[in-house]
Design a protein that fits this description.
Blueprint lengths: L2 H42 L12 H10 L2
């Protein structure tokens, strides 16, 4: 093989890898953009939390086991 055909083969290979990389990045971007509205809906649907200390069954169990 002469030097020119080797350069041409390398250029084709680089072009293919560049196209494959760009296509993958575009696919990931499309998936990320399409999932954003769904995530925003979930955040809006979250119930409001009450501020301050709340004693729950889990906390009462912990205090019962921590007594000496």
């Amino acid at each position: 093989m002469d030097e020119q055909s080797v350069k041409l083969a390398n250029a084709k290979r680089r072009g293919f890898l560049l196209a494959a990389g760009a296509g993958s990045a575009a696919a990931v971007g499309a998936v990320a953009v399409s999932s954003i509205p769904a995530a925003q809906k979930i955040v809006k649907a979250a119930p409001a939390k009450v501020a301050g200390y709340q004693e729950t069954a889990h906390i009462r169990d912990y205090y019962a086991t921590a007594r000496i």
